[in-house]
Design brief:
about 50% helix, about 15% strand, 10 strands, four-stranded mixed sheet, disordered C terminus, alpha/beta, Lyase 2-enoyl-coa Hydratase, Chain  A, domain 2, six-stranded mixed sheet
Amino acid sequence: MSDVRIIVEKDASVGWIRINRPERLNAFSGTMRTDLLHALQELEQDPEIRSVIITGVGRAFSTGGDISVMAEIIEENDRPRFEQLVRAGADVVRQIDAMTKPVIAAINGAAAGAGACLTLACDLRIASETASIGFTFLRVGLHPDWGGSFFLPRLIGPAAAAEFIFTGGMISAERGERLGLFNRVVPAAELESAARGFAGEIAASPANVVADAKRVLRRSLSSSLTQVLELEVESQLRAFESPDFREGITAFMEKRSPKFSRPRPRAATPAKQEPVRGGS
């Protein structure tokens, strides 16, 4: 599958997406952005999948947009093609945001530029001790995209976000965990098993409540306290009407592990896509 740049694998309740261009440190080129979008949509619509893990093949997670492609676009002064690439990245972020299933970034190596921002768009981040992350856009005269300007200050505060965006420096896994960029940092050899375990913890929870919790957490980033309180009430009432609530209480009283039901079907929420131009 060396010619498949976005690999989708299904392992019981976990869907894996592997960015597979290791010879270029998994830099995005061609149709990789839209292929990633379609992979996310496929896993969102699969009723057997409870969570999704995105990782890279080889020694990098992703170093963002391919610089050689950018040089070609500059040479041709092809603004429509460049805009299409930027909007395709935004579509990926919208899809992750709209999904009912948690998305975990398993950061196996360098995550830079758009690759770094892709990790921020995910719900959870687990990193190898050898991983690093950097918002390197300004180093090549570009502005952050893929939602980096939105997520980074909310995760680490505006001052630290400004430092990392303005300077474009790489951040070690240790410092990233200390700042709150990464939920967990583990030895490199344990990254995939740790990510699978993380996903397994989520799979043991009631899928419908997880979906509502993700929705409310995402909405809380741009909502007032009053709005979030109302969202919590609505979500609690849906949970009350679910058999999972009764099962959870019964299992607790009987001192056993609960057996939660399968997730209720939901309509797919595909991201808005722009017309493809320039063959990218």
